[in-house]
Amino acid sequence: MEFIKVTKDHAPYIALIELNRPKELNALNLQLMGELRDALKELDNDDNVRVIILTGNERAFAAGADIKQMAGKGTIDMWKVDQFSTWDQINKTRKPIIAAVSGFALGGGCELAMTCDMIVASETAQFGQPEIKIGVMPGAGGTQRLTKALGKAKAMELVLTGKFIDAEEALRYKLVNKIVPVELYLEEATKLASEIAAMSPIAVQMAKESVKRSFEVHLEEGLHFERKNFYMLFASEDQKEGMNAFVEKRKPDFKGR
Ligand code: CAA
Hints:
Blueprint: E1 4-11, E2 14-19, H1 30-44, E3 51-55, E4 60-62, H2 67-70, H3 75-81, H4 84-91, E5 97-101, E6 104-106, H5 108-115, E7 118-122, E8 126-128, H6 142-150, H7 152-161, E9 164-166, H8 167-172, E10 178-180, H9 185-197, H10 201-213, H11 219-232, H12 237-247
Helix pairs in contact: 1-4, 6-7, 10-11
């Protein structure tokens, strides 16, 4: 891997992926996105990993798709490369992904953070979809996910003007879970990841799947989907362990079976 760094034992059951193109503010070129897709696929199949943290560095989570790589391209080039198919694969990751964001999360960087399940932001984080300033528009989910997170008026403002919002505003609009001082954002993301990693990984993945489904279907179908996953969990040893531990007044030890 040239543009990302993967640490599988960042903390018990937690893998860390660091975007690693610091000079380019982690601009998301095709190779980086391919590496990210492959790493997530591998981690999704690794029983020793229950939660994934995705981060950049203090200055930038990611400043967007690589403009230099796209600048000379035509429609057919873009269609052939089909860069967003990589994103579809990332979106299919079953395990929870927490974005630990400091500095710029712009364009594709903001979209990548929003593709994750939760965002822990440093107080220096800045979010935005500035594609309009370079003659295009968001292409990796920005118009959809930002609108669902912020509501129409604010999303429209950001997408049409390209202006950024800071961490405080992002929290107010419920785009991020929490803000912490810059020296603590990774630690805080790890704390959140550890809490989730202590749960049954099967229940966690089915719960994630169900919450995500609520963005795609109407209520009745979502409730039906949720109910099926709920019943399905009664086939797991973790359900017996969790409920028995409650009755026996002890801490459960979930095995992911
Ligand atoms: N693509 C390629 N290179 C980028 C980049 C990007 N998205 N963002 C920053 N860089 C590069 C700069 O070109 C610069 O490289 P050089 O030193 O070789 O010139 C280096 O990173 C540092 O950047 P700056 O000197 O510009 O740093 P700054 O602190 O002055 O400004 C910034 C920071 C405001 C983030 C500014 O870099 C910027 O506006 N970047 C582009 C943001 C953007 O438009 N993102 C959307 C991209 S399109 C997209 O993402 C489409 C989609 O939906 C998937």
